[in-house]
Amino acid sequence: MLLRIGYDIQFEFPASAAMVALLHVHPSRSADLRAADDLRTEPTIATDPYVDSFGNRCTRFLAPKGLLRLTNSTLIYDSGLPDPVSPNAREVPVQDLPHDVLKYLINSRYCEVDRFSAIALELFGGVPPGWSRVQAVCDWIHSRVVFGYHHARPTKTALDVFTERVGVCRDFQHLAVTLCRALNIPARYATGYLGDIGVPVSPTPMDFSAWFEAYLEDRWWTFDARHNHPRIGRVLMATGRDASDVAITTSFGMADLRHFTIVTEQVPEDAPVSPDANMRR
Amino acid sequence: MLLRIGYDIQFEFPASAAMVALLHVHPSRSADLRAADDLRTEPTIATDPYVDSFGNRCTRFLAPKGLLRLTNSTLIYDSGLPDPVSPNAREVPVQDLPHDVLKYLINSRYCEVDRFSAIALELFGGVPPGWSRVQAVCDWIHSRVVFGYHHARPTKTALDVFTERVGVCRDFQHLAVTLCRALNIPARYATGYLGDIGVPVSPTPMDFSAWFEAYLEDRWWTFDARHNHPRIGRVLMATGRDASDVAITTSFGMADLRHFTIVTEQVPEDAPVSPDANMRR
Amino acid sequence: MLLRIGYDIQFEFPASAAMVALLHVHPSRSADLRAADDLRTEPTIATDPYVDSFGNRCTRFLAPKGLLRLTNSTLIYDSGLPDPVSPNAREVPVQDLPHDVLKYLINSRYCEVDRFSAIALELFGGVPPGWSRVQAVCDWIHSRVVFGYHHARPTKTALDVFTERVGVCRDFQHLAVTLCRALNIPARYATGYLGDIGVPVSPTPMDFSAWFEAYLEDRWWTFDARHNHPRIGRVLMATGRDASDVAITTSFGMADLRHFTIVTEQVPEDAPVSPDANMRR
Amino acid sequence: MLLRIGYDIQFEFPASAAMVALLHVHPSRSADLRAADDLRTEPTIATDPYVDSFGNRCTRFLAPKGLLRLTNSTLIYDSGLPDPVSPNAREVPVQDLPHDVLKYLINSRYCEVDRFSAIALELFGGVPPGWSRVQAVCDWIHSRVVFGYHHARPTKTALDVFTERVGVCRDFQHLAVTLCRALNIPARYATGYLGDIGVPVSPTPMDFSAWFEAYLEDRWWTFDARHNHPRIGRVLMATGRDASDVAITTSFGMADLRHFTIVTEQVPEDAPVSPDANMRR
């Protein structure tokens, strides 16, 4: 399956400001790219690519005063298979986890693991460990938290989601990540493209999506407490401890969002590489 | 100047549990060590040393049920000079910061940078940038927050410190780190040994201390919002985004602290390598 | 000046539920009413009027399963004068305050006075006490908090407003009330009708408004940290410690809001008593 | 049974400050008093008694600069019976509650009812309503929250107790009150004397105690989520929405506590009225 992915994001900068963008396909998917994955800017400015400490491809630049447009459109091969499911995947005892996985067990800005120890154990201590326990966390959240775009706010934490029971996709995942960590299951936040492939087309404009990964057996597995069923066509962009680590763009100074269009769609195998008309909206 | 540093920490584990300890001298000080810096355990158990993603020396192990004693006593050379002061150190524009410094500008569990943007600018926006601004943050906190051991609690954040105005050393530094980051100055939490050298001896038992580092000009500089004057004889153990990243010990299961003694003292240049009697209390 | 005021509020109750409504003109304005101020229900159900401990007229009832419509339309005389301003009004020392005013100095759900002691003193301790200090609180909030309907949420406290700097009218007043109390100035939350009289007509649908009252000299005075200039035609409905005490409706069970229309408009002196057509939307 | 109750509380005031004290026996127990219940001050200053809006006896005064001593010692008759238990007490539907009880269903500073709706229903929705449900709340808290004096802090809310699982008696009751209200059961915070009568004598110094009352059937009943068994010899001083409403003393200005002794003890029926020697410590 071939997917066209891309974005057209425009900011107005009242003054020059540094910006960091995580607007590339994750290195783990580089081999699947069928075209260049470059961040283009209008006007053309100097950009500085690097890989952050979580392994994500980043671009940083000094945005000049005025309007800045960030665009990209590329093609990526996808297996067309849904997220893998492995009900027998074992939980790894903490002492046997790889060193670099340990950091996904502790606190982060939106994941107050220290405040969920008792709650997590009370809710899920009776569920068999491993895949079924992570799935139980997802089921619990999916059935109790109500989705709504107007419930988004930048300071919302897992505890806020647990008490308010409303949120956007990032909120569902923050609560799931926090509960998993409180159960000593490594979990990290993930963000990327997720088109409406194999599901009814959503009436709302496309946005980037958030899901999470849990470490079981010997690898990271995709879970999604919001949708809570295996999906086709996720394209990972970045993983981190929570949304703070993997904000699509972080501006160190004022930046007013003026335009935001995301494209994620299946295209014919012989689709041309150039951006499609939809991006010009 | 020669310092003896060490600890005797004892836990009772009601059941076997994994533990991670940051109980070594930081690699940046390895060359100053005059004796081995090994974590000894009683009973002797297998331990697994590694370096975490922040560059800290860590040791992990599976603690058996029962009492576990962690000890160390080593010697380290110290210049005897107080923390360097460099009033002309410039603030580095975000776009010019090294890639790996950027992560010290964003949110972490105890440092809610996103909630301090307006507050930080109102309090310190009028202070000249660079060293003087970081110093102004330290002065402000030092004069307004009251120290008290009974004000410690594991879930206390920078915002709690800002409103309650009481805390222990970690709380002072969390608030300072958060305000610096909100001002676009990279700041990280530091922990280590800090003896009463060149200052009156404290009547309370020795503990590990927390301070913080701010990135100015071309390097990290030591600041300490609690003591707020240059000190002699700090021995760095670990740095991270906040106390969550550099907890002295993190236990994944129940662990009751039964004994806790820290030694940090100046010794004669010809002091023997073996642990001193004080450690046997 | 004659004002027509009223509402048409409709709820769908999935099951029978008790409800308390504060949908009457405040007793302090009863003499100004030119028509009955009755809460009508469709279907007609038994309602029980009473006065709560803050002196507000309340109505309680058991809403049946299904749609319930609450309407009212009445006429009230208004002086047409803007909110009184009295720059020389003195602050009353706490020891001289009337007994029943003391409760407006302490904490309430959305007003964490205990967390604002230091902050309030730092920001306003240098302003002369009395009217000018309350006005300084309003000026500060008015210039630093940005209004936006999408920033409303039921759990938002004064501290949230202080850090997030965005909110709806209730949020502006909660922060003002909290800062006043922290300065030992009694303050209470007020809610009622506020039409666009003497000001440009707002393009958004009419809603009830929130303001606050501060006790100075020998009485309560109206302040409004959101609009921050004297307004014509406020019709007080209720006062309390914060929005929890004076929610327009409180439902003890599920209630889905289906329709919400408020009318506040100047009418000719000979306007008929019956509801105007606008209410039928 | 005859009880001697009293206190010796001393504050140092760096400057004159207004103070409100709730240091009297509650009016509901006035008939049981066997001696005067007067707040004495040293030096002798003017005091102003009144009854607050919750029905509690209060005293207010302007404390002069310097040391102020508040003392009292009186005798009160007590039935000697433990707190009444009435397992069949019904829950009253909200629509049938007395008007003045409704206010004990809503939010207050330390009782964020709005954040506990879902949690309370999930934990206790399956327990039969009425006495058994309130008792289930007490059992849950009693078995999951650990008591410790060092866990006290003035800003701690029910949500903090729910996540931290440690606290002092006020914390246990705040969580219980909040859960009851979220279940539509009126609950209020209570404070008073509670001696070690019929139980082993506590080694810690006597303090005032907190418990709570829930409204069932046709009256308020005493519950205590900390001790969680019927006690003998409670002497009620005040009730309110939470600890903010019934602080033993509230100072509007600096006040340093210098001495704090409470007496609650059973005495012979012919005990003299004058204060006992213990008060002179």
Strand order of the largest sheet of chain A: 3-6-1-14
Please, how many helices of chain A?
4
Average pLDDT value of chain A? 95
Radius of gyration computed on alpha carbons of chain A: 19 Å
- Kindly state the number of beta strands of chain A: 14
Query: Spans of chain A with pLDDT under 50 lasting ≥5 residues?
Result: 276-281
How would you classify the helix and strand content of chain A by structural class? alpha+beta
Quaternary structure of the protein: homotetramer
Biggest β-sheet description of chain A: 4 strands, antiparallel
Order of helices and strands of chain A: EEEEEEHHEHEHEEEEEE
The best one-word shape of chain A is globular
Proportion of residues in extended strands of chain A: 25-35%
Task: List the defining traits of the structure above.
14 strands, about 280 residues, globular, alpha+beta, homotetramer, 4-stranded antiparallel β-sheet, disordered C terminus, 4 helices
Summarize the structure.
The structure is a homotetramer of 281-residue chains. The first copy, chain A, contains four helices and 14 strands. Chain A has 281 residues and is α+β, with helices and mostly antiparallel strands.
Overview of this protein structure:
Four copies of one chain form a homotetramer. The first copy, chain A, is 15% helix and 33% strand. The relative contact order of chain A is 0.24. The radius of gyration of chain A is 19 Å and the shape is globular. Chain A has four helices and 14 strands. Chain A is α+β, with helices and mostly antiparallel strands and 281 residues long. The first copy, chain A, has a four-stranded antiparallel beta sheet, with no helix packed on it. In chain A, strands 4-5-2-13 form a four-stranded antiparallel beta sheet, with no helix packed on it. Mean pLDDT of chain A is 95; it is low at 276-281. Chains in contact: A-B, A-C, A-D, B-C, B-D, C-D. The A-B interface holds A 18, 20, 50, 52-53, 58, 60-62, 93-95, 99-100, 102-103, 105-112, 114-115, 154-155, 184, 244-245, 250, 252 and B 18, 20, 50, 52-53, 58, 60-62, 93-95, 99-100, 102-103, 105-112, 114-115, 154-155, 184, 244-245, 250, 252.
